[in-house]
Design a protein that fits this description.
The structure holds two protein chains of two kinds.
Chain A: H1 5-10, H2 12-15, H3 21-30, E1 32-36, H4 42-52, E2 56-60, H5 85-96, E3 101-105, H6 114-118, E4 123-126, H7 131-143, E5 148-154, E6 157-163, H8 171-174, H9 194-213, E7 222-227, E8 232-237, H10 264-276
Parallel strand pairs in A: 1-2, 1-4, 2-3, 4-5
Antiparallel strand pairs in A: 5-6, 6-7, 7-8
Chain B: E1 2-7, E2 21-26, H1 29-39, H2 43-47, E3 58-62, E4 65-66, E5 82-87
Parallel strand pairs in B: 1-5
Antiparallel strand pairs in B: 1-2, 3-4, 3-5
The chains are: A alpha/beta, B alpha+beta.
The structure holds zinc ion.
Zinc ion binds near residues 173, 241 and 244 of chain A.
Chain lengths: ~280, ~100
């Protein structure tokens, strides 16, 4: 597919990069990325992927925009309060780059719907904010051999890893199981600096673009740890776990699991929303 | 006995008087956890389950190596090693309070 003059102009700063060129841009324009969560991680990630020209971007989020989101979830603006986040996300990405096809999924992922959604995409970005979704997404991506870019944030800390099923470890190789319900008396409201979420979300976008272009060394088998207070990045090794519950040769998990939300803060929030609804 | 630096993750810094790095003296990880508990009472219950095993959503690294792929809590420590405690994180939840 030949690039139009407008495309050449729009993407010129990345087309001139070594290892990108018109061929690389063509790969980006044909790529399909699914972003799970349009919050602190998904928002900056989505912006950069749309700006780069990723052809199709799926946005999954069941929440509506709230005022307290705007400190970090930069896809949404004050006028969007009350709108489904997928809608405001789509508006913003389309305004940035009308070429990008944005598909919205204003739903909560579970074992019954995730396979149908991820099958249309080349790569999945996990920007979710809870353990049940994290493990569901990991398992679904491993089972269907879908590349997954993981990141997590808490206060001034961030973690990121790329998962290429079959080639490297998965999230369960790193953390075999989510914290059990009952073992967790309460969660703390962590708080997050918007810029810290931005660092991690942009790292995810960077991994997605490297994957699409086939350049560099992805964060496969390596967990990147960001400490915002020290401004340090560290990397620890993540070997493949030969006993991994989902990606080993003898997986114990062959069916998706819907873990219950154990976070008391989120449960409380749900009650609160029901009360005012 | 080896003197080592231990990086404490954010949710446990409440117990370590907001220190993100502490010093321990221990021959291996098991002893290191004992020393941590001596210095910061209450930390052990966050790290270990009721059977005394390291919780499945928390990893210990000696330098950049996960001890689950070394000798688990018998992994020995050498002078000046850096130990990191890294839990799974998900939007405000760390799995322990
Ligand atoms: Zn695995």
């Amino acid at each position: 597919m030949a690039l139009t003059n407008e495309q050449i102009e729009r993407y010129s700063r990345q087309i001139i990069l070594p290892n990108v060129g018109g061929k690389g841009q063509d790969k980006i324009l044909k790529a399909k990325a699914l972003i799970i969560g349009t919050g602190g991680l998904g928002a900056p990630c989505g912006f950069y992927l749309a700006a780069a020209g990723v052809g199709k971007i799926g946005l999954v989020d069941s929440d509506k925009v709230e005022l307290n989101n705007l400190q970090r979830q930069i896809l949404h603006i004050t006028a969007d309060i009350g709108l489904p986040k997928t809608e405001s996300g789509k508006k913003r990405l389309a305004a940035l780059n009308p070429e990008v096809e944005v598909i919205t999924y204003p739903i909560r992922l579970d074992s019954t719907n995730i396979m149908e959604i991820i099958k249309d995409y080349d790569v999945v970005v996990d920007g979710s904010d809870n353990f049940p979704t994290r493990y569901l997404v990991n398992d679904a991506c491993v089972i269907t051999k879908k590349p997954l870019i993981h990141a997590g944030i808490f206060r001034y800390d961030g973690q990121a890893m790329a998962i290429l099923p079959g080639q490297g470890p998965c999230y369960r190789c790193l953390f075999p199981e989510p914290p059990p319900i009952g073992a967790v008396p309460s969660c703390q409201e962590g708080g997050i600096l918007g810029a810290v979420a931005g660092v991690l979300g942009v790292l995810q976008a960077n991994e997605v673009l490297k994957f699409i272009l086939g350049i560099g060394e992805m964060l496969v088998g390596r967990l990147l740890i960001f400490n915002a207070l020290d401004s340090t990045f560290r990397i620890v090794k993540v070997p493949r776990d030969k006993d991994c519950l989902v990606c080993s040769e003898h997986p114990q998990i062959s069916k998706l699991i819907d873990y219950q939300e154990f976070c008391s803060l989120k449960v409380k929030k749900d009650c609160y929303i029901k009360k005012i609804a | 006995m080896a003197k080592v630096k231990v990086r404490i993750p954010a949710p446990l810094q409440k117990i370590t008087q907001n220190k993100q790095e502490v010093t321990c003296e221990a021959v291996n990880i098991k002893e290191l956890i004992k020393d941590l508990e001596k210095q910061f009472p209450g930390i052990k219950a966050r790290l270990l389950d009721e059977n005394g095993k390291i919780r499945r959503f928390i990893n210990f690294y000696v330098n950049d190596e996960d001890i689950r792929f070394l000798k688990h809590d018998e992994t020995s420590l050498s002078e000046g090693a850096e130990v990191s405690i890294i839990p799974a994180i998900a939007g405000g939840c760390y799995g322990f309070d």
